[in-house]
């Protein structure tokens, strides 16, 4: 088995919670370096302030995981590809679709693997829901994705700046499930985006979708102001009257009220297993569909203003 020497660029919460322990447990990867502007150190890996210094000092490095905020991800990923590295992109993969298209083309030209990771797709319940819907039409769909931003993004000011995605940072997880399971393409028909008056990214969003076929109602509600229990649910009714409920961010599937699939989340374990397969096959996997729905929401959305946000 090939063991890939991997470096991580960006040492934030998702890196600490997911990437570091998952890489440590996967024999296909050996974490040898990290790049952190703050100089954060990780046991067993060399620390560099800038990715270019990491590439120069460690030419044996063949893979990087880019876990920075999306606003700077394009330049960092392009630099890595130019240095001959395969690249894994944390979600969302870029700040814009044009940036992602450029990275995909550049990775192909360089003969490098580019992998866009949508962690919520890596749930057994999501895969089974996709298979169940493959030969049916969706009559109704309701996404409810509501959580407490203070719990999940403490002190992360970048999410409130332009290009920081705001509530779409978690909301795009729901959209990644939607684009994975729907049997036909989905379009944003209308959107209302609610911005705190002191922020450049929304704290809530209400979306209505359309498809090329008949349907009654396809909606999504995202909100970062929910306290207490957190809600990450998708309810679907097919043309035949079957109801599917994906709960806990896609970890649990009920069909007509009966438990069908439930698995302890192992999203990032599956992501790195898939990455090892892509590296073995020298094949990229670039999925822009969730990002396109976010871009469309901003493009046609009506802007609403609410009270200032203060952490």
From TrEMBL:
* Family matches, as Pfam families: GFO_IDH_MocA
Domain Gfo/Idh/MocA-like oxidoreductase N-terminal residues, every copy: 5-115
Q: Mention one GO molecular function.
A: nucleotide binding
Name of the protein this chain belongs to: D-galactose 1-dehydrogenase
Organism the protein comes from: Bauldia litoralis
Where is the organism placed in the taxonomic lineage, from the top? Bacteria, Pseudomonadati, Pseudomonadota, Alphaproteobacteria, Hyphomicrobiales
